[in-house]
Design a protein that fits this description.
The complex is a heterodimer of chains A (86) and B (155).
Chain A lengths: L1 E7 L1 H7 L3 E6 L6 H9 L3 H6 L7 E4 L2 E3 L10 E5 L6
Chain B lengths: L4 E6 L5 H9 L7 E8 L7 E8 L3 H17 L3 E7 L1 E3 L4 E9 L2 H18 L2 E7 L12 H8 L5
Helix pairs in contact in B: 2-3, 3-4
Classes of the chains: A alpha+beta (86), B alpha+beta (155).
InterPro entries (chain B): MoaE_sf, Mopterin_biosynth_MoaE
Keywords (chain B): Molybdenum cofactor biosynthesis
Organism (chain B): Rhizobium meliloti (Ensifer meliloti)
C-alpha cells in the first residue's frame, strides 16, 4: 500500500467534484495506466471521467509522463485533459 | 553568461513595452526583438469571457524549460514569457513572448517555437463563458496545435 496525492484540473476536476485527494493505492497499481484503471472503480463520476483514458494526460511530481510510467516514489500525481493555454 | 530567461505566471495584466525595455536594458548587442501576444477574442460576440486555469508550479517550470530550450536551439540573447490566469474578457492579454537575438530570424523562430510548445505542454486550460449566459464548455485541444509543435523536429 502506498499513499499518493492526486490533483485534478479542468473538466477532470469538475466531473470528479474535487481539486485533489489523498489515496492509498493497492500494490497492483504500478503505472499511470493502472492508476486510471483503479480510479474507474471508485464510483460513477470516476468511471465517466476515465472511460476514455487515452485522452487523459498525467504528470508525476509536476513533470509530464506517459501512461506506462511507474508511479513508485510519486509524491503528487496530476491528471488532466490536453492543455489549451496560450 | 547564460542568456536571461524571465518567466511569470500571473493574474495581472502585463505591459508589452515595459517587458521589451526590461529585456534590452543595459545591453547594446541586441539586433532584433520579436514580441508575440495572444489575446482573448469574442468569437463574433458569442463569448463574454475566458477562464484560464493553471497548475501552479508546473506551469512556470514547463514554460522555463521551453524558453531555455529555445535559447539554446536558436542562440537567443534573452527570452521572456508571461502567461496570465483567471478570468479574461475579450480584448484582454493572455500571453506574451519576447525574444532577442543579434539577427531577426532567430528571434522570430524562437518566439514561434516557444508558443508552439507552450500551447501543447504548459499546463493551462481555457473555459468559455457565453455572452448569452448559457453554460460554456472547456476549450478542446486542437490537432493543428500538435502539428505546429511537431514541425520542430529534434535535431
Amino acid at each position: 500500500m502506498s499513499t499518493v496525492n492526486l490533483v485534478y484540473f479542468s473538466w477532470v476536476r469538475e466531473r470528479i467534484g474535487r481539486p485533489e485527494e489523498t489515496l492509498d493505492l493497492p500494490e497492483n497499481v504500478v503505472t499511470i495506466a493502472d492508476l486510471l484503471g483503479h480510479l474507474k472503480t471508485r464510483g460513477e463520476e470516476y468511471a465517466a471521467v476515465f472511460e476514455h483514458a487515452n485522452v487523459i494526460r498525467a504528470a508525476i511530481n509536476q513533470e509530464h509522463v506517459e501512461h506506462g510510467e511507474p508511479i513508485a516514489g510519486a509524491r503528487e500525481i496530476a491528471l488532466f485533459p490536453p492543455m489549451t493555454g496560450g | 553568461m547564460a542568456a536571461p530567461v524571465t518567466v511569470r505566471v500571473q493574474r495581472d495584466d502585463f505591459d508589452i513595452a515595459a517587458e521589451v525595455s526590461a529585456l534590452c536594458r543595459a545591453r547594446t548587442d541586441v539586433g532584433a526583438v520579436v514580441t508575440f501576444s495572444g489575446l482573448c477574442r469574442d468569437e463574433a460576440g458569442a463569448l463574454s469571457a475566458l477562464e484560464l486555469e493553471h497548475y501552479p508550479g508546473m506551469a512556470e517550470a514547463e514554460i522555463e524549460r521551453i524558453c531555455h530550450e529555445a535559447v539554446e536551439r536558436f542562440g537567443l540573447q534573452a527570452a521572456t514569457a508571461i502567461h496570465r490566469f483567471g478570468r479574461m474578457e475579450p480584448g484582454a492579454n493572455i500571453v506574451l513572448v519576447v525574444t532577442a537575438s543579434p539577427h531577426r530570424q532567430a528571434a522570430f523562430d524562437g518566439a514561434n517555437f516557444i508558443m508552439d510548445f507552450l500551447k501543447t505542454s504548459a499546463p493551462f486550460w481555457k473555459k468559455e463563458h457565453h455572452a448569452d449566459g448559457s453554460a460554456g464548455d472547456w476549450v478542446s485541444a486542437k490537432d493543428a496545435d500538435d502539428a505546429a509543435r511537431d514541425r520542430w523536429t529534434r535535431r
